[in-house]
Amino acid sequence: RVNFTDSTPFLRGVQVSGDERTNTVTLIGESRKVEVAIGQLSQLDIRRRQVAVNVRVIDIDLLALERIGTSFSFGINDTQVSNDGGIGFINFGRRTPGTTGISADLTGSTIGTASSVVNGFNNNGFVRDFFLQLQAAVTNGSAKILTDPTLVVQEGQTSEVRLTQEVVTNFTQNITGGTGTTPATVSITVQKASAGLILPVQVDRIDDNGFISLSIAPSIARPDQQVAIQLPGTGVIANNFITLLSERRVQSGQFRLRDGQTLVLAGIIEDEDRTTVTKVPILGDIPILGALFRRTDNQNRRREVVVLVTPRVLDDSDRSAFGYSFTPGVETQRVLQQQNRR
Questions:
Q1: What is residue 202's predicted lDDT score, i.e. its pLDDT?
Q2: What is the rounded average pLDDT of the residues 13-23?
Q3: Strand 24-28 and strand 50-61: pairing?
Q4: One Pfam family this chain carries (predicted)?
Q5: How many other C-beta atoms are found inside a 10 Å radius of the C-beta of residue 84?
Q6: Would you call 254 exposed, middle or buried from its count of C-beta atoms within 10 A (0-12, 13-18, 19+)?
Q7: Beta-carbon neighbour count of residue 303 at 10 Å?
Q8: 164 pLDDT exceeds 50?
Q9: What are phi and psi of 318, to 5 degrees?
Q10: What region does 322 belong to: left with phi over 0, alpha with psi -120 to 50, or beta?
């Protein structure tokens, strides 16, 4: 059977007074108890360790840019119609070889008889040449480093990198109804959000074995498209644009790394399909035949964000590139010497 009783406080009788202005503590009591109290305070009043965290955020284009387009051209008699990227060209008349620069007659045997049909035009006036051009271009994959900072973070603190710009994402309209001759009051509130890269780094703990416990939560938001809106009661759409944001975010949670190890966070993938139509004005809007004067491009993008985290515990000695020197005071030096004798 175990009986639990309150123990007598060992430091009972020691008087303690503190001064916030000078940031000092005064102890009055027996010498042995004062030395024990100083030893306990020395354990509490130690510098927090620091770590240099290198965070590299890389945006990788998985498929690069896949582009597939179509364009048409055709000819009727002496007229050739072609479409290149939505720009229409019409050529009239037959094409004959130029004679500029020929200074002498060509002699020799006859090679052959010239054809009466040039570029596929026949004498009946029907379409002879009809070309369909299928264009496909694939660009090699590329990677872009979005940011590569090295943050010095103290144990238990959070540091953040923000490479953003503010965009308008919404409007809020409040209408306060009037009474009698009092007109209604209309107030418009603009809501904004940050577009760009936000990278918070939190260092939770640095232990004596060289392990660092930390967490990161990178997020990337980019403008997707702009939408024109009409505020009720104004009847005006112009200049009222909101920006829709496309955001990629990852929350790592707390993880532990050894000093100098690198953690790779991957799998933040964005898939985007985009169709672009360029056409000859008016002619490109004609049903069925309008396809002869239009060009359609289909683009597909797959992008992945990869985050590499490398922490390094800072050395407080002079030989450290990130370190700093510390010269203790007279009283602190005496306490440290007493601790070393034990």
A1: 92
A2: 83
A3: unpaired
A4: Secretin
A5: 12
A6: exposed
A7: 18
A8: yes
A9: -70, -20
A10: alpha
